Amino acid sequence: MSLVGIDGRVVASQVANTPGTVTCGGTAAGVVPPPVSTSNTRVYFMDALGVVRYLAPNGDAGTTITLPIGPARRSLFAVSPDDALMAVVVIDFAQGGATTNLYMYQLQPGGSKPFLFQQSGGYTLWPTGWHGTSLVLAKVPSCTQGGGPFCCGPQEFHVVDPKTAVRRFTVGGATCVLAGAPSPAGVACEDTTAFAQASVLDWTGAAVHSYPVSGPAPAYLSPDGTLVAIASYTAPTTTLVPSNAAVNLAACSWIDNTHLLSGGDVQHQPSVADITTGRVIPVAAQGDCAGRIPGGL
């Protein structure tokens, strides 16, 4: 785990083994995200034993709680920006689907962990982050045997009440599939007919902008919502719309409104790009994108 600044420097790092892969009864792969979440001041990550650790940019590090994992079980989590709450989804994978249980952990000593919601079937939920006082959950296929563009990631975001799990808004859907990680301004989606248009959706699910695109590609909305970074891994390059400026890396995340982080090449070697100057700086670490600080949506 490495924390990278806008200048490409690694400001803090820690080593931990992450949980291994999981299958749906041995017939398909269970779909899970990296076991990482960010608050306004820390990154939280899970080790192979289910222990959730944290790391801050100043090097402060420690452990919080241990979540249940097993051969067919994974725990996913999202920590609130103020480090007070942790939404936890425990998934039990089986042939043809999974059973999903949602809890809300209070992280202070002696805090409770009320049960909020359960579902079973071909879709599960990932706790993705927090938008104001609402929890954001991603609707994701439980299992995959491979498929087309965006087959195996979030299909929709559900903005829910963190006390009751009652849904307030749905962001994205069958006709405009989510194309990248969300930001405080919303998320980019792409039409599923010809993949000729990308739209920016706000956190009520409303489309606020649309741009032409030339086919399915990862698309990341800047924190202020003014630019969409459309990544191509063949060049690699990233095009910014609507400005149509380009930088020489395949972005996987925004660090802030003027800096992009790449997901690394085949050797998982990331870089940082300044979109105002076009300068690309290699990062002295290996890995893939997993989040940004501050972590609120």
Describe this structure in words.
- The protein is mainly beta and 297 residues long.
- The protein folds into two domains: 171 residues, no CATH class; 124 residues, Methylamine Dehydrogenase, Chain H (7 Propeller), CATH 2.130.10.
- It contains no helices and 28 strands.
- The strands form eight sheets. The chain has a four-stranded antiparallel beta sheet, with no helix packed on it.
- The mean pLDDT is 94.
Pattern of helices and strands: EEEEEEEEEEEEEEEEEEEEEEEEEEEE
What best-fitting shape do the alpha-carbon axes yield? Answer: globular
Lateral arrangement of strands in the main beta sheet: 4-5-6-7
In whole angstroms, how far apart are the ends? 22 Å
Uncertain runs with pLDDT below 50, 5 residues or more?
Answer: none
Proportion of beta-strand residues: over 45%
Count of individual domains? 2
Radius of gyration: 18 Å
Structural class: mainly beta
State the share of residues found in helices, binned by percent: under 10%
Helix count from the secondary structure assignment: 0
The overall average pLDDT, rounded, is 94
Q: Tell me the major beta sheet.
A: 4 strands, antiparallel
Per DSSP E runs of 2 or more residues, the count of β-strands stands at: 28
